[in-house]
């Protein structure tokens, strides 16, 4: 009996060791939830769970390497930490993977601990189920919420109909009075005093007529002048583009710097339209929209995914094969901001030399609507726009007003040295500004600065 019990205990211990070893091999001795965070932070640039991106899909990778290469979890630890060293050691399977994926070298992650890698492998083996989203309002709830609004609308319609009915009754009464008047002798007396021709009316009221004509002429001239002055001014203009691009998602939600895409705005005269290859820097690995925390009204995931596919079509990118086909499609963007040909405007002059001065001036004039990037002074808060629009007039008067009110940063090393001998002269010349030196004081209103 005793020997049987000892044998039973040994059997249980052996089974326990076997199960723990098996669980360890399949990457389930880690924390999948923590592994998900580590996976998103370190792996999603090149990998997805269920599809090939730059590298292979990683769902079930522990089982796959065992089946394909006959290697265990320890091999995955070595590969993740320093795959280059593993290949250099002559490891056959490591070099096969390197050749299979076009010799694209995987990043090395020596900073990941053994536990971190175990957590990542646990996530790839058994990813946690996605949390259920909050249930949206049911039609019944929506109908209940809409009931007061419907009731208000009904009341307005009833009141309007009653008002119209009252107006009709009043008109009928007045018509009846007129009919009675026509049947009386009073009408004959009125006919004797009425104006019988336009000439008689003009002679009787010619002063009033001349005054009305003069007022109408002035209003017409002002209207024509005002219309002429606003030709080419398109404040609020926001056309639809061939590929939908939300600045709120990219610059706002994702905090992408303006100059990452518009690189020449800082050092060039013109802020160019970014090449589609700039988009592919990110969207080569981002093939679908997964930011459920922000979704515009009337748009869903399928819409955003379709716009990303337009980027692939334009650049000739095959996401399945992860390579360019060479068949590109030019994108005909609709221009929004367009300075006239007779106006010289240099972006670099404003973005570099005038950056801090423009930001300080704008924030001083708009204490409740401050900006942190110089671009916003002219283009508005682009990071809040889903569809970009012209935020300002971009007229000559608008530019001159900015030059008159923007104080030059004299603490700037260049300005301090360049205008060293002009400080006192400018302060005497512009005493009305309290000794402040504006852009206008250093030539900002000279015609040749912008027109030549």
UniProtKB/TrEMBL annotation:
Biased composition (Low complexity): 137-146
TM stretches of this protein: 156-173, 207-230
Protein species of origin: Chryseobacterium indologenes (Flavobacterium indologenes)
Name of the protein in question: Quinol:cytochrome C oxidoreductase
Keyword Protein transport appears in the UniProt entry: no
GO molecular function: electron transfer activity; heme binding
Lineage: superkingdom: Bacteria
UniProt xrefs under InterPro entries: Cyt_c-like_dom, Cyt_c-like_dom_sf, Multihaem_cyt_sf
Annotated signal sequence range: 1-25
Taxonomic lineage of the native organism: Bacteria, Pseudomonadati, Bacteroidota, Flavobacteriia, Flavobacteriales
Keywords: Membrane, Signal, Transmembrane, Transmembrane helix
Segments of this protein annotated with the region Disordered: 127-146
Gene3D superfamilies in UniProt: Cytochrome c-like domain, Cytochrome C3
